[in-house]
Write a structure and sequence with these properties.
Layout: H1 4-24, H2 26-30, H3 33-53, H4 56-79, H5 85-98, H6 101-104, H7 112-125, H8 143-156, H9 167-181, H10 187-207, H11 212-236, H12 246-258
Length: about 260
């Protein structure tokens, strides 16, 4: 592992290379915040894939790609006289210290839960922080992640179930409301009730310490693996998957579950 000086030197080399590319490379020179944004989203998802796979080599590579985008946006801002990479670091350092008064101040917090209890209150006190508890939830977040963040923020200021098991009454209530709308003609109402049910289930995952995004992604990957087994089974018989009966698919599915 590298020492602190070597780390700072490596970061300096990265910024120097970016300065050079911004001047000499036609592609890098023409990039803007708008043109980079789709690539940033893609790079973030690629990092998430590497993290899910616990692929250390790829995690290192993808972290570099994400860091490049952070440095690139700061470089574009520097060229406009708005801020530079140092300002990004200074603001982050200031924020981290402000949000950790149990380390840099006189607040007592011995557990992670105690830290979380103070988190939203601290953010509301920040000079340029959120004006409301839910104001910091990005509108562009995928709906499931957004729901989890909303629930977490509300819980941090005391708006939560008294006991985790209390949530199951809400899940059952929302399930009954979905069932009541099935077969009806009001598609908007059915969509709303499904949304309420999903929100309640996501809330349950939080209460039991499960990340809903990770949970669903593991299930997605499990389904893909098992479904691929069905397709492979069809090919082994010289058939297409569309030629299989549902019973044949179920048999291959159950084989995959055992493997």
């Amino acid at each position: 592992m590298h020492n602190q000086t070597e780390k700072m030197e490596a970061l300096g080399q990265l910024l120097e290379v970016l300065d050079t590319l911004r001047v000499k490379c036609p592609w890098d020179r023409k990039q803007t915040n708008e043109s980079l944004r789709p690539n940033t989203i893609e790079e973030t998802y690629e990092l998430c894939d590497a993290l899910m796979a616990d692929d250390q080599a790829n995690i290192c590579k993808e972290l570099g790609d994400v860091l490049l985008h952070v440095a690139f946006y700061a470089k574009i801002a520097e060229e406009k006289g708005q801020f530079d990479f140092a300002d990004v670091c200074h603001k982050l350092t200031e924020k981290l210290k402000f949000r950790h008064p149990h380390i840099y101040g006189d607040v007592q917090a011995e557990t992670a839960e105690q830290v979380k209890e103070n988190w939203e209150k601290i953010k509301l006190k920040e000079k340029d922080g959120n004006k409301t508890v839910l104001g910091g939830v990005p509108r562009a977040l995928p709906a499931m992640i957004k729901a989890a963040r909303i629930q977490e923020k509300a819980a941090n200021v005391g708006f939560d179930w008294e006991k985790p098991e209390d949530v199951w009454g809400k899940v059952k209530e929302e399930t009954a409301e979905v069932e009541a709308e099935i077969g009806g003609k009001d598609s908007k109402r059915l969509e709303e009730e499904f949304g309420d049910l999903l929100f309640a289930v996501i809330n349950a995952t939080r209460l039991y310490g499960v990340n809903p995004e990770n949970a669903l992604e593991h299930t997605n990957r499990k389904f893909i693996s098992r479904f691929n087994h069905i397709e492979e089974g069809a090919r082994a018989q010289g058939r297409k998957i569309t030629d299989l009966t549902l019973e044949e698919m179920d048999r291959l599915w159950n084989e995959a579950k055992k493997s």
